[in-house]
Design a protein that fits this description.
Strand order of the largest sheet: 10-11-12-14-13
Largest sheet: 5 strands, mixed
Helix content: 25-40%
Radius of gyration: 35 Å
Distance between the termini: 145 Å
Strand content: 25-35%
Order of helices and strands: HEEEEEEEEEEEEEEHH
Number of strands: 14
Shape: elongated
Oligomer: single chain
Number of helices: 3
């Protein structure tokens, strides 16, 4: 009887632990982004994908320099996502508020208090001077290789809001190769021109030297044209200049 009770107790305990484990796994929010350990600007989702703002970081200076709010007031705002920066009386901050006359600086976001929203679409900072705090809205745009910074400014007493639009604000970061820029049409034309000139000169020299048996300057293709080229350019300038001059001489009546 005692053996049966002991075995039954163990089975119940095992089932209880198993149900608790299943409950934790099933109950885990697949869209919750938690702060990445050791980072103040990256969070990770349960599937391993991340939102990482470190590529936007400006090191020891604000990546997003002081800027006026959309509705201008007496202040400007600067922000750096990862590394603390200092400016004026703002020392080792994530967000700094500065008066336009440079007389006042306020810490409005301590980097050590950084906290992502559950969906990763915002990051908040507290611990600022006299309780100041800032919310940074992260707007995902896969095509935004160059980030856009918008300052909403003060939204309530000692509470401020900023916006950053970037592909780095997207879950999983920027698409592969999104930072690469192709050659412009003008660059392609310049490269093509240089290649054609090179082929023309080298091909012409080889042809004149070995097919025609030329030597000296005669190996240069169309050498007579190139000898006359400076004079042709001069004549062109003289003609254009003469067209621009008005005839100031009149026949006396």
């Amino acid at each position: 009887m005692e053996i049966f009770v002991s075995v039954s107790g163990r089975i119940c305990l095992t089932l209880h632990v198993l149900f608790l484990f299943i409950g934790v796994v099933v109950g885990q929010d697949p869209d919750k982004c938690t702060m990445l350990p050791g980072s103040t600007c990256a969070c990770v989702f349960p599937d391993g994908t991340k939102i990482d703002l470190s590529p936007l970081d400006g090191a020891n200076k604000p990546a997003f320099d002081f800027k006026e709010p959309t509705v201008p007031d007496d202040f400007m705002y600067a922000y750096n996502p990862c590394t603390p920066f200092s400016s004026g009386d703002c020392s080792n901050v994530a967000v700094c508020q500065r008066s336009k006359d440079l007389s006042h600086y306020y810490n409005i976001g301590n980097p050590s208090t950084a906290e992502f929203s559950g969906t990763g679409d915002a990051i908040s900072y507290s611990g600022g001077e006299e309780g100041r705090q800032t919310d940074v809205q992260l707007l995902c745009n896969k095509d935004a290789n160059t980030p856009k910074y918008v300052v909403d400014g003060q939204i309530s007493d000692k509470h401020y809001k900023l916006q950053v639009t970037s592909c780095h604000a997207c879950r999983g970061g920027c698409p592969p190769g999104s930072g690469k820029k192709g050659l412009s049409f003008g660059s392609i034309l310049c490269i093509l021109f240089v290649v054609l000139v090179f082929v023309y000169l080298i091909g012409g020299i080889i042809f004149n030297r070995y097919a025609r048996g030329a030597s000296g300057k005669e190996v240069i293709p169309n050498v007579s044209l190139w000898e006359e080229f400076p004079l042709l350019v001069k004549d062109g300038f003289v003609f254009v200049a003469s067209c621009c001059k008005s005839d100031s001489s009149y026949e006396s009546i």
